[in-house]
Structures are given as structure tokens and as C-alpha cells.
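REQUEST FORM: STRUCTURE PREDICTION
Request ID: SP-0412
Submitted by: Lab K.M.
Chain count: 1
Length (residues): 65
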Amino acid sequence: MSQQDRLVIFDTTMRDGEQSPGASMTKDEKVRIGKALERMRVDVIEAGFAAARDRKSTRLNSSHN
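STATUS: Completed
RESULT:
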């Protein structure tokens, strides 16, 4: 398959979900969602905005290619 024919899946569930009024996720919930997205082989996972909450950020890494 050529790069031109490749479909890239970009998920913003965790980032956009926290922008909804009254919505928030714990670190454990984000990790659980991130692992589920990784099992589905999602290419890019946006987990939130760095330092958007209490000046803290969580870094999630994926090693699948």
C-alpha cells in the first residue's frame, strides 16, 4: 500500500471531551481509553492540552507503527 493510499486515524476524544462543560476524565480513565484506542490501531491520539488543568500534563506514548 502506498503512502497516498494510507488512511490515518486521528482521535481527539480525550482532548475534546474535556472541553465540554462539566466533563472531565481522571488519569486512569484517559489511560484506559488510550489503551483501547491503541488496540484499535489509532494512529494519532490527542490526550489533551499540556498544562491545561492545574499546570500538569500526562504524557502517553505508543510504540506501534
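NOTES: The mean pLDDT is 76.
Reviewed by: T.R.
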